[in-house]
Design goal:
Bound molecules: S-adenosylmethionine, iron/sulfur cluster
Order of helices and strands: EEHHEHEHEHEHHEEHEHEHEHE
Strand content: 5-15%
Shape: globular
Largest sheet: 10 strands, parallel
Number of strands: 12
Distance between the termini: 28 Å
Number of helices: 11
Helix content: 25-40%
Radius of gyration: 19 Å
């Protein structure tokens, strides 16, 4: 995976057809550290120039196979390496997944995300996940899967089944990656992103902040994402949920203003991506979420649980969006 090298204000991209601005760490860092009002004003202007600032894309996430994962991601309750007390489950029946997706659609979600606690899917799993994609697609929803690492053949199989998005996070900076995960490399993640992109599936890729990383790591993660051969269509920014029994269970939470700055920088570096306020919203005040939405976040997960972590209730989200005059984004608006 060749990361295009960031040089000040240059434009380059995949082949001659695409040209766009690439970012350097220095430029991004200067933006991140600019006066808060300057940063937010610029981020909001970029957001307004590319999206309706009063619309938010609603996704719903279902864990189709929970726990017992062979990877050792330091934040994750689903890793078999940690004692989080989570009960592992087998792969959910296809019919059950489609039933859950139907309920989500009837409650307004336009995208359905299915996640499995795998290092990567095995051959024996592929028929079932392909059937899930076909079934959810038939409901008229956008489909998203996050199954761990994929080879090109698996990605092409999912594309043929109609998969719209594949979620695969780089989690943090390349420098800090080994502090969080040791059972795979940063390059492994980038290789899956290549396979997903090359098979024509849209990429959903972001990371987690508040894991003890440095400021430079947060900036570097966003610059890596922005300088990918194509910026991700969706960029989930998770705020670490410290989970007991995991190596990051005692991590100090990120300072709220620093989190808002991270959202604003993501918006400026990736003006046409959906920036998702992902895990951690239950620990965010309404004011913090409102600032993130002003800074350019325009996608959230709805529903009481993410894969295994808590999420604000539907009522809470509906009340917040009503206060802010924010409406769900229509499918066609993407
Ligand atoms: N096993 C697949 C993989 O790792 O690619 C599925 C990913 S699933 C969507 C897990 C994602 O949820 C992680 O990549 C991370 O971004 C987020 N996540 C998991 N545990 C978290 C935690 N404790 N705090 C914040 N985000 C978390
Ligand atoms: Fe496994 Fe994914 Fe959790 Fe890592 S984040 S331990 S790969 S389920």
């Amino acid at each position: 995976m060749t990361l295009v090298s960031p040089t000040e204000g240059s434009t380059a991209g995949r082949g001659a057809a695409r040209s766009r601005r690439l970012w350097s760490q220095a430029e991004a860092r200067a933006l991140y550290e600019s006066p808060f009002n300057e940063l937010l004003f610029r981020a909001h202007c970029v957001h307004r120039a590319n999206f309706d600032p009063n619309r938010v894309q609603l996704s719903r996430l279902l864990s189709i196979k929970t726990g017992g994962c062979p990877e050792d991601c330091g934040y994750c309750s689903q890793s078999a390496h940690h004692n989080s007390g989570l009960k592992a489950s087998k792969l959910m029946a296809v019919e059950r997944v489609i039933e859950e997706a139907r309920k989500a659609r009837d409650m307004g979600a336009t995208r359905y995300c299915m996640g499995a606690a795998w290092r990567s899917p095995k051959g024996r799993d592929m028929d079932a996940v392909v059937a899930m994609v076909e079934g959810v697609k038939a409901l008229g929803m956008e489909t998203c899967m996050t199954l761990g690492m994929l080879n090109l053949e698996q990605a092409q199989q999912l594309k043929t089944a109609g998969l719209d998005y594949y979620n695969h996070k780089i989690d943090t900076s390349e420098r800090y990656y080994g502090e969080v995960i040791t059972t795979r490399s940063f390059a492994d993640r980038l290789e899956t992103l290549d396979n997903v992109r090359d098979s024509g599936i849209k990429v959903c890729c972001g990371g987690i902040v508040g894991m003890g990383e440095e400021l430079a790591d947060r900036v570097d993660m966003l610059v890596t994402l922005a300088n990918l051969p194509e910026p991700p269509d969706s960029v989930p920014i998770n705020m670490l949920i410290p989970i007991k029994g995991t190596p990051l269970g005692e991590a100090q939470p990120i300072e709220p203003i620093e989190f808002v700055r991270t959202i604003a920088l993501a918006r400026i570096l990736m003006p046409q991506s959906h920036v998702r306020l992902s895990a951690g919203r239950t620990a965010m005040s309404e004011e913090m979420q409102a600032l993130c939405l002003f800074a350019g976040a325009n996608s959230v997960f709805v529903g009481d649980t993410l894969l295994t972590a808590d999420n604000p209730s539907e009522d809470k989200d509906t009340a917040l969006f009503r206060k802010l005059g924010i409406e769900p984004m229509e499918l066609s608006a993407r």
